[in-house]
Amino acid sequence: MSAKSTRMLRRYGALSFVLGLGACSWFTDFKEQPKFDPWESVSDTIPMRGNPQNSVSVYGSAAPGYAISRERLPGTIDSMKTIPNPVPADARSLDNGHKYYSINCAVCHGDRGLGDGPATKYGMPGMNIAGPGSAALGYTDGYIWGMMRNGRGLMPTYNRIEEMDRWDVVNYIRGLQGRYQVAVGPVGLPGETGDKVPGPSQMGPTRPSPYYHQAGSQAGAGIPAAPGGPSSPPALSDSTSTTPVGGAQHIPVSTTPKTGGER
């Protein structure tokens, strides 16, 4: 082999080495790791709110991802139709459901649920969920709740609405169907915030863990106290919590471990 050929081989070898180093993933400063980035979701392009999808809240879930799939199939939604609605249709629930409905549902279903939302002007078929002849009049609460969880047909999944808030939407839809007296129409002006939008995440750190016990609160009960001090959140009672925490919307929370039901 000539000297010229040897020099060319050395140059190509050095170039290949440099390119190889640039292609490896050793120098990412640990930026590329299996993790959730802000507003990232594990399914399609829907941004997550609260816990990542398919995870289970410490408050439990009526339909955890490992037990009921998120396929947009009628049979899958049928499997959720017997889930009981754990949220009473009180003023708080109907007001919260109204806010979520106006933000997420009215664009297609219309303010009164008659299937005349603004999206119908651009080719979206009208989907009546509250007027005479609507099939939704015969759906169970669990079925409507499951349809929002999974989506069905032309309706995408609205799992970004958290589990307990979806029950509020179900209650509001029942109001539109005539079961309860509810306000109709936009809650506020476009861009208006404050009390015109839903409150903080119910899955976020606005309530104490149902299995947390303040230091000394369970003395004599044979339950070791959790780390903490006087500034720790107050422990829940052995029945249900009836005190709003941090200004969050009140949801009674059972402290008994369970695999389904309310969070």
Question: Mind summarizing the main beta sheet?
Answer: none
Q: List low-pLDDT spans.
A: 217-263
How does CATH name the architecture of the domain at 85-188?
Orthogonal Bundle
CATH superfamily of the domain at 85-188: Cytochrome c-like domain
Mean pLDDT: 75
The tally of strands reads 0
CATH topological fold name of the domain at 85-188: Cytochrome Bc1 Complex, Chain D, domain 2
- With helices defined by DSSP (H or I, 4 residues minimum), what is the helix count? 6
- In N-to-C order, the SSE pattern is HHHHHH
Percent helix among the residues? 25-40%
Q: Tell me, what's the shape?
A: elongated
Distance between the termini: 76 Å
Radius of gyration: 26 Å
- Structural class comes to mainly alpha
How big a fraction of the residues is strand?
under 5%
- Classified by CATH, the class of the domain at 85-188 is Mainly Alpha
Q: Could you characterize the architecture of this molecule?
A:
This protein has helices at 3-23, 74-78, 91-104, 106-109, 141-150, 163-176. With 263 residues, it is mainly alpha-helical. The protein has a domain at 85-188: Cytochrome c-like domain (Cytochrome Bc1 Complex, Chain D, domain 2). Helix 3 (91-104) crosses helix 6 (163-176). Helices cover 26% and strands 0% of the residues. Residues 217-263 have low confidence and may be disordered. It is built from six helices and no strands. The protein is elongated.
